[in-house]
Amino acid sequence: MIPPNTLTCITKVFNKCQLHHYFLPSWKIAYVLMFLKPGQSHKLPGNYRPISLLSNLRKIYEKVILARLKEHCSDLQVIPDEQYGFRPNHSCEHQLFRVTSLITHGFNNKLYNGGVFLDVRKAFDRMWHNGLIYKLIANKLHHYLIDIKTLFLRNRTFTVKLNSTISETGHIKADTLQGSILNPFLYTVYTADFPMSNHITNCFFADDTSTTKFVIRTLQLGLIEIEKWCTLWGVAINSDKTGSVIFGKGHPRNNLQSLTFFEEELSWDKEVNYLGLILDFKLTFRSHI
C-alpha cells in the first residue's frame, strides 16, 4: 500500500506536469531486455523479442494522459466507427461478427463481396512522430495534450541488456515505444484518416448486385487511395500477409482480373486468415474447424 502522503505528492507532481505541459526527461529512458523467440536461432537479431522496462511513475502518468486523450477524442469524434481495436466495448469478436454478417448479407441477397486484408508491417515501430503530432494538431486536441505528447515522443533514449552485456545509449526516432500504454490509442489516432469510400466498408470490402467486375474495380480504386495514404504517412504494408478473396456462392474463380498494390499483383485466394479466423470464399468455416 502507498501511504496517503505519497499519493498526495504524486498527484501534485502530475497536476503540475499537466499545468506546465511537461514530461520528465527521466521518464523517457527505456531499459530493453531481449528474449529469444522459441525455436529461433540466437544468431539473428530479428529472432529476439524486445521488452522495455519503463518507470512506474511514468506509466501512471500515461494513464492520466490516456484518459484525457480518450475523453477529447470522443468529444471531437476523432476515431471512426469502423475502428474496433483498442476501444472500450469493442473487440476482435465484434469485428469478426461485423465482417461475417456483411458476407452473409451478400449471400442472402445474391451479392458478391470482395475483401482485401492488409497487414501493416511493424505498425507501432514505424509510426512517424511528426506525422502523429500533425494529426493531433489537425484534430484540434487541447494544446497541453499536444505539448505533452510532443515531449513524450522527442529525445527518448534506450539501452539494451543481453545476458550481462549492456549496450551504449541509443536514440528512438520512430514508434511510440514498446511497453507504453499510450501506444494502441495513439495508433488509432494516427490511422483515423484511413481512406474511406461510399462503396467500401473499412475492413476493406466492396459489394455489388450481380457482377464481380464492379467489385474488383472498386477495390482497385480503393487500393490506389490506400497506396497514396501509406506513402504520405510512412505506413508499410506486409505484402506477404496481404490476402484478397471474392466471397460468393458458386462464383467463377477463373479469369478474374488481379488486383495490384504497390506494383505487386494480388492473387485471389480461396481463404484468408483474419484476426485468427479462417474465412473461406463460401464462408463454410471448414478450414478453420
UniProtKB/TrEMBL annotation:
What does the UniProt keyword field contain?
Nucleotidyltransferase, RNA-directed DNA polymerase, Transferase
Q: Which InterPro entries match?
A: DNA/RNA_pol_sf, RdDP_mobile_element, RT_dom
Domain Reverse transcriptase stretches: 16-279
Q: Which organism is it from?
A: Araneus ventricosus (Orbweaver spider)
The organism's lineage is:
Eukaryota, Metazoa, Ecdysozoa, Arthropoda, Chelicerata
Q: Give the matching PROSITE patterns.
A: RT_POL
GO MF term (any one): RNA-directed DNA polymerase activity
Q: Which domain of life is it from?
A: Eukaryota
Put simply, this protein is called: RNA-directed DNA polymerase from mobile element jockey
